[in-house]
Amino acid sequence: MTGISDKTISELRILRACIKLLRVPEGITQALVSLARIGNFEIRMFRDHHAISGAGPLFWLELFDHSASASVDSFSCNEIEDAVVIFDNFVLQAADLNAASGSGGTDS
After folding, report:
1. Checking phi first, is residue 102 left (phi over 0); if not, alpha (psi -120 to 50) or beta?
2. pLDDT of residue 41
């Protein structure tokens, strides 16, 4: 047991993704980083050109269904603390949806 809480692990995962997004060159209008994959579902973080200009949210979190090639849910975030709550909710939602669809297996 490492003594690191699930909340801390989620915060570190989100902070690492933020750093990756910040490293995307300015000419790129949309950047995307995968946070976790649970069966057919993926939790993604992305930013668009509005975040670069300061006119929009810092970044977005999205729950994406690869079997349907569609977004299931998304949420705009301006604070890491908000993103942790949303990320954890998306993990639970993806696990439930994955179980309901009969798909097994989880990855992170």
Report:
1. left
2. 97
**Domain chopping of the chain, boundaries:** 6-100
Distance CA 94, CA 96 (A): 5
pLDDT at 25: 81
Q: What is the pTM of this model?
A: 0.81
Rounded Cα gap, residues 69 and 76, in angstroms: 20
Q: Determine the pLDDT at residue 78.
A: 87
d(CA 51, CA 5): 30
Tell how far CA 32 is from the center of its chain. 9
In one letter, which amino acid is 106? T
Q: Which residues contact 99 (CB under 8 A, 6 or more apart)?
A: none
